[in-house]
Every structure is written in structure tokens, then in C-alpha cells.
Design brief:
One of its GO terms (molecular function) is DNA binding. The protein has helices spanning 7-12, 15-26, 36-42, 47-56, 62-71, 76-98, 101-112, 125-138, 149-158, 175-186, 229-244, and strands at residues 117-121, 143-146, 164-169, 190-195, 208-211. By secondary structure, it is α/β, with parallel strands linked by helices.
């Protein structure tokens, strides 16, 4: 049994929770391929019930349970999938841990009080910038997404002190972004830098730095196409806050 039961644990479980644990133990071999939704469906319960039952048995959560199960599985495909999912989990967890709540609130204050927000992005970060700018527009923020390097430089040289530059960059080494933020800084505008490199040149020009986590693993090593999950998480936090409050 992957989940060991004793009388104290059994007494702490409701009837439904006990059925969930029995189902997990009976299907230990298939556990690496199951999701928490699958288990809930097959036990006529809910994902929250499954999660609660697992925690009552001394396991931190479903991810830990599935990790324990897949770690000893002989199927190499399952092992590989487990490692990839674990990488994404680590990236998301580290990103949340690194984010300063005060910096998030300072960024939101700047956005709310800026006459116009220019959202900047290059390469794959453009997709994060586009989505972020679009959602700001839906929230009645005067936001514009800028991807063209020449337009970026022009915006930076002409931006006003009551406007804002919001830059998305994984490594913070893109020349046109550095030049644009440097110009904006000289013009006295507010600058928010969302980056995964705390030592980038962008940070020294920013009013607020939102530093995310970059996993060292790169799936396609031939090209610079590292995950932008961290940038997306930070963008989502800001949008969700603006939408609710």
C-alpha cells in the first residue's frame, strides 16, 4: 500500500475519505497516470475531498503522492513525464516564493495612477506582454503593447512623467529594452521591470523590480526558448488583483 493506514488515521477519516484512500491503494500501479480529478470522479467525491483525505494520512498533497508512486515505476515514459511535471511545479513554487508582495502592490499602484501604460516585450516574452496589455485594456486601463524595437526606443525618448513602462524580459539582456528603460528613466516616468534576472541592466532603471524564477533546465537547448511561466505567473497575479480590487 502506498498509503499506510493505522487506527488513528482511519478514525480521522470520513466514510468518503476512507473510500478515496482505499481506491488509491487499490490502484497504486495506475496512480502515476491518474489526476486528482480522475480519482474524485471514480470515487464519487471531489478533488478537495481527495486532497483532504491524502493530507490526513500525513502526505503533503496529491503531487507528493504521485511523485512517490511514479518514482518507483518501471515505465521510462512515466518517469520522464514525472520529471517534466516536477520541473514545472518547482518553477511555479519558486516563483511564488520569490515575489515580493509589496512590489506587486507598488506595481498595481503605479498602473492605476498612470495616464498610459506601455507594455514592452521581445521574442517569446512578446506573448506574455500581449496578453497582459489586452487584459489591462479589458480592465479599462489605457494600455498599449509595444513589440517593435524602433517604436520602443521612440516611446522611451518621448514618454511623459505621468506614464508608465512595463517591461517583460526573461534574461534582461535585450538591447532595445535596456535603451528604452534608460530613456524612460531620464524622462522621469514610472518603470516596472518583470524579469528573471535580478542582476540585469533593466533593474537599475526600474521604479519597481518584479523578479521571477528561471529554471536552469532548457528543453530545446539549441535555441533560447526557455519557459516564460514565471513572467506569466507575475502578470496573472497583477491582473487578478486589479480585477478583484
Amino acid at each position: 500500500m502506498i498509503i499506510q493506514l493505522n487506527q488513528d488515521i482511519i478514525d480521522s477519516l470520513s466514510k468518503t475519505e476512507l473510500e478515496v484512500i482505499r481506491y488509491i491503494n487499490d490502484n497504486e500501479d495506475n496512480l502515476p497516470t491518474l489526476s486528482i480529478v480522475d480519482i474524485a470522479f471514480n470515487t464519487f467525491s471531489s478533488p478537495s475531498t481527495v486532497s483532504r483525505a491524502i493530507r490526513k494520512c500525513g502526505i503533503a498533497g496529491f503531487n507528493e503522492l504521485r511523485y512517490k508512486s511514479s518514482a518507483k515505476h518501471k515505465d521510462t515514459d512515466i518517469q520522464a513525464a514525472r520529471e517534466i511535471m516536477e520541473k514545472s511545479l518547482i518553477e511555479a513554487q519558486n516563483d511564488i516564493e520569490r515575489i515580493s508582495i509589496q512590489n506587486i502592490l507598488d506595481s498595481i499602484y503605479i498602473i492605476k495612477n498612470s495616464k498610459r501604460v506601455f507594455v514592452l516585450g521581445r521574442g517569446l516574452s512578446e506573448y506574455v506582454a500581449e496578453e497582459f496589455a489586452f487584459k489591462l485594456q479589458l480592465l479599462d486601463v489605457n494600455a498599449v503593447c509595444i513589440k517593435d524595437p524602433n517604436i520602443m526606443r521612440k516611446v522611451g525618448s518621448e514618454i511623459k512623467s505621468d506614464e508608465c513602462l512595463f517591461a517583460f524580459s526573461l534574461n534582461g539582456k535585450t538591447t532595445e529594452l535596456i535603451e528604452t528603460l534608460e530613456s524612460g528613466n531620464r524622462n522621469g516616468c514610472k518603470i516596472i521591470n518583470c524579469c528573471c534576472n535580478e542582476n540585469s541592466q533593466l533593474s537599475k532603471y526600474a521604479t519597481v523590480n518584479l523578479i521571477g524564477y528561471k529554471h536552469e533546465h532548457q528543453a530545446i537547448s539549441k535555441y533560447e526558448v526557455s519557459s516564460r511561466v514565471s513572467l506569466s505567473i507575475i502578470a496573472r497575479i497583477i491582473i487578478d488583483y486589479l480585477a478583484i480590487y
